[in-house]
Amino acid sequence: MLIHPDFNPIALQLGPIKVHWYGIMYLLGFITFWLLAQKRLKDQPYARQGWTSRDIEDLLFAGVLGVILGGRTGYVLFYQPDYYFTHPAQIVAVWDGGMSFHGGLLGVMVAAYWFARTRRYSWLQIMDFVAPLIPPGLAFGRIGNFINGELWGRAAPAWWPGAMIYPESGSMVPRFPSELYEMFLEGVVLFTVLWWLSRKERPRGFIAGCFALGYGLARFTAEFFRQPDAFLGYLWFHLTMGQLLSIPLILLGSLMIWWSLRRRDRLAAQGQSAA
């Protein structure tokens, strides 16, 4: 039986300055975003449309703010509103943990809207561009969760391959290493699919829709292995908060894919009629 390693969440300490592994994972996610964005800029039609490396840098800066502000706000509103509204000073204490992907995604969408307005680009074009660049950051984030020994899985059968004991959970019950499952589904699989799809020019909104649908399905599935937050437990229909928040993403992604393909066919029909 595997036992979760006793990692030190602090990677480096210089006097009073502590560098946490989780922070390093965020940094690696942003660096990977920038590197992949540069490659995507060269391989896709964005450069022909006037995009530059400066645009990528400004978009990354806006995205970082969106992830941090949106992720924290989402966690406060979606997960522990009662606690934070009675302890408002703790809202800014992001170093104590507490970030929501769904909130971070909303933050990125707002940042993309601001970027689109200031550059006179289409908002959907921005979302199509960034969609394949997000999964690696999600993978790094889940590695950070695993190092911290948090967000462990539900109790697993003793025969389950890779079942792991998390002493941090307060029990010696074998559990699913759900952080690693999420890293694989939300990070590796989703990135592979989106990067492959984005190698060819697609209808506007299609890639963004595939991201929303793909992440929603990956998160909804992984949550069956993840232990619900103790302060929330199971909610409607015995689903977790992560699953409930993923349902709108699945519906939105499906709608966006349908709309983009329908719009492509309509534009193609109009072009034939004009000819």
TrEMBL record:
It is an enzyme of class 2 (transferase). GO terms for molecular function: phosphatidylglycerol-prolipoprotein diacylglyceryl transferase activity. It is a multi-pass membrane protein. GO terms for biological process: lipoprotein biosynthetic process. GO terms for cellular component: plasma membrane. The chain crosses the membrane at residues 20-37, 58-79, 99-116, 123-143, 180-198, 205-222, 234-259. It is found in: Cell membrane. Its EC number is 2.5.1.145. This is Phosphatidylglycerol--prolipoprotein diacylglyceryl transferase. It comes from Thiomonas bhubaneswarensis.
